């Protein structure tokens, strides 16, 4: 009798089909039970139970239980049992430490399970995926660095398996909901109630996902076929993004970078374009073997795209340096800097691969392989450093912002105390407490005010740390002039405060209530604000018109204000007068039938 858990040499193994299936089903079931127990301790109620009562511990367990079993499912059959167990323990410990640190350094306001921030969850999953697919080929080849085609085959196959398994799990639940609906129409609701029970839903979801991994692993050739088709389709998209990026870079000398910086998200946009180029270059290159060479047009596109990475990364670094020089470090800028650092490795390696044939004879884009491995190792290291005490973005940002205040790079009035109070966790609160004891009376007063503020919006309106500024508002019609005194310095809380550029807001004058005096309607991205002039001549904000997305017409609120069909109408139902004030009618539907416009 063949033991599926041992090979012919007697070493622990899971090569047998039954052994693989049993191991995967066991992993899925254990994961489901652990996640259910965690959910139960943190179930919506007034009283939490252990371990949800200890946020760092709960976050550590949640992160480890969410991702380690998925890695084990992928590693079963590809690593020896002892090696897989050791790697699982190491991965679980690292994930637990990342989760513990993330929860431990957060402030406790509005702190609810799972106590984890999204960046930690997303980057931890990415680091685990990359690390696992660096380790598996290396162990299989018994070398520190495996052949690139082994890395390619393992990682892309796992990616396809992951997508298919998630799709299978989603389809399972769709069918389960359909079955519950069929039973419900004949008066049987047991299945509907069952799907709502977490003790059923969570373990079954994990178990079905494990079954999907096993099913996709049985037909490895089928998975490779799906992967080949997906890579072929994606590789042709490289032509599209290469043309777009080349056109963008060619237009920059004529348009300048001012428009890019004004978006407020230039670095993220440019890094996203670079990431798209990197992914699509690899879909065309694949494992680099001769029999997988793409057509000539794609090989040319790969070379061009590889060269275009360098100016994109330089633009991202330039934008980051400008923002950091002007406003200092923030967690987002530190994470973006880490991404740009990885981008530098890709840009250097890919650029060398594309241009090296001009001075040395080498296979097509061959140096790209080493760049991919180096960037993968660097990515894992950077993620572990960022979300651990080593390079904690909150700690670095707080230190930099406070240093800027102390050396006078930012004034006490303009300093962002709200960042320390609401966005920098415990280290920010500690720094704010130190500022509250500052010998600078103005800094101490503002820091104390921030300590007692319950939310950032209140701080922005009541504290003077954000200065008043003069808005830039476009008039409509374009040749019209806005009334005197409307465009004047305003403080946060006034809708005009967000009008930094003339394209942000548009305003027009209307006599809305027929009293012979004009009011002003101001449209931004979200609303149309109403301003009326008081007896003192000041224009004050009266309220907002919130526009539902119903029927045909422009989606942009500013364009809606310009539309001649936008006009005052009498309400369908009147307000009610009560001893406590007016009762305003709120329609039951978001898109009720519009009232008839008065001629």
How is the secondary structure organized here?
Layout (H helix, E strand, L loop, with lengths): L16 H25 L13 H21 L5 H24 L13 H24 L6 H38 L4 H6 L2 H21 L1 H36 L2 H5 L3 H20 L10 H32 L3 H25 L12 H19 L6 H14 L10 H7 L1 H12 L4 H12 L3 H7 L11 E2 L30 E5 L8 E5 L3 E7 L5 E8 L10 H6 L13 E3 L2 E3 L16
Parallel strand pairs: 1-2
Antiparallel strand pairs: 2-3, 3-4, 4-5, 6-7
Helix pairs in contact: 1-2, 1-7, 2-3, 2-4, 3-4, 4-5, 4-13, 5-7, 5-8, 8-10, 8-11, 10-11, 10-12, 11-12, 12-13, 12-14, 14-16, 15-16, 16-17
Keywords:
599 residues; mainly alpha; 4 domains; five-stranded mixed β-sheet; two-stranded antiparallel sheet; 7 strands
Tell me the number of strands.
Answer: 7
* Computed CA radius of gyration, to the nearest angstrom: 30 Å
Percentage of helical residues? Answer: 55-70%
Total number of helical segments? Answer: 19
Main sheet: strand order: 1-2-3-4-5
What is the chain-wise order of helices and strands?
HHHHHHHHHHHHHHHHHHEEEEEHEE
Q: Roughly how many Å apart are the termini?
A: 91 Å
Low-confidence stretches: 1-13
Reported for the largest beta sheet, the result is: 5 strands, mixed
Shape: globular
Mean of pLDDT = 87
Number of domains: 4
Determine the strand fraction and express it as a percent band.
5-15%
| SS-based class | mainly alpha
């Amino acid at each position: 009798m063949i033991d599926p858990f041992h090979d012919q040499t007697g070493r622990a193994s899971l090569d047998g089909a039954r052994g693989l299936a049993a191991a995967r089903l066991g992993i899925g079931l254990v994961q489901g039970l652990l996640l259910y127990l965690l959910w139960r301790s943190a179930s919506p109620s007034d009283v939490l139970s252990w371990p949800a009562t200890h946020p760092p511990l709960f976050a550590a367990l949640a992160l480890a239980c969410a991702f380690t079993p998925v890695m084990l499912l992928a590693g079963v059959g590809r690593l020896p049992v002892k090696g897989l167990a050791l790697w699982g323990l190491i991965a679980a410990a690292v994930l637990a430490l990342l989760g513990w640190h993330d929860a431990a350094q957060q402030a406790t306001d509005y702190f609810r399970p799972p106590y984890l921030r999204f960046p930690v969850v997303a980057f931890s999953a990415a680091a685990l995926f990359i690390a696992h697919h660096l380790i598996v080929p290396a162990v299989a080849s018994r070398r520190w660095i495996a052949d690139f085609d082994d890395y390619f085959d393992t990682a892309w196959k796992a990616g396809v398996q992951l997508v298919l398994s998630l799709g299978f799990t989603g389809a399972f639940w769709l069918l389960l909901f359909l079955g519950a609906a069929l039973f419900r129409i004949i008066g049987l609701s047991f299945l509907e109630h069952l799907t709502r029970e977490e003790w059923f839903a969570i373990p079954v979801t994990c178990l079905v996902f494990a079954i999907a991994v096993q099913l996709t692993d049985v037909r490895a050739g089928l998975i490779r076929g799906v992967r080949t088709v997906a890579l072929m389709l994606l590789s042709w998209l490289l032509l599209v993004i290469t043309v777009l990026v080349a056109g963008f870079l060619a237009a920059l000398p004529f348009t300048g970078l001012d428009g890019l910086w004004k978006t407020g998200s230039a670095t993220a946009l440019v890094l996203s374009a670079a990431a798209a180029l990197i992914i699509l270059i690899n879909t065309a290159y694949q494992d680099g073997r001769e029999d997988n060479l793409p057509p000539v047009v794609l090989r040319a596109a790969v070379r061009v795209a590889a060269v275009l990475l360098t100016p994109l990364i330089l633009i991202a670094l330039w934008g980051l340096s400008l923002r950091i020089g002007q406003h200092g470090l923030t967690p987002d800028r530190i994470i973006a800097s880490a991404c740009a650092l990885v981008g530098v490795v890709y840009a250097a390696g890919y650029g060398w691969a594309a241009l090296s044939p001009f001075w040395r004879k080498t296979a097509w884009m061959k140096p790209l392989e080493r760049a991919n491995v180096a960037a993968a190792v660097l990515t894992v290291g950077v993620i572990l450093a960022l979300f651990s005490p080593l390079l904690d973005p909150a700690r670095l940002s707080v230190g930099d912002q406070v240093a800027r205040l102390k050396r006078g790079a930012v004034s006490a009035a303009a300093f962002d105390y709200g960042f320390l109070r609401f966005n920098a966790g415990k280290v920010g609160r500690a720094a704010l407490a130190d500022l509250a004891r500052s010998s600078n009376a103005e800094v101490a007063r503002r820091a104390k005010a921030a300590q007692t503020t319950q939310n950032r919006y209140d701080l922005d309106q009541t504290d003077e740390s954000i200065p008043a500024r003069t808005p830039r508002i476009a008039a409509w019609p374009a040749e019209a002039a806005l009334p005197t005194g409307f465009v004047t310095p305003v403080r946060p809380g006034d809708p005009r405060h967000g009008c930094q550029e003339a394209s942000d807001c548009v305003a027009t004058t209307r006599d809305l209530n027929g009293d012979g005096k004009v009011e002003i309607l101001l449209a931004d991205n979200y609303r149309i604000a109403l301003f009326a002039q008081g007896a003192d001549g000041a224009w004050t904000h009266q309220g907002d018109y919130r526009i539902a997305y119903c029927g045909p017409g422009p989606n942009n609120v500013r364009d809606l204000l310009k539309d001649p069909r936008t006009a005052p109408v009498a309400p369908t139902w009147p307000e009610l007068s009560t001893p406590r004030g007016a009762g305003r009618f709120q329609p039951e539907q978001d898109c009720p039938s519009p009232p008839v416009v008065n001629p």
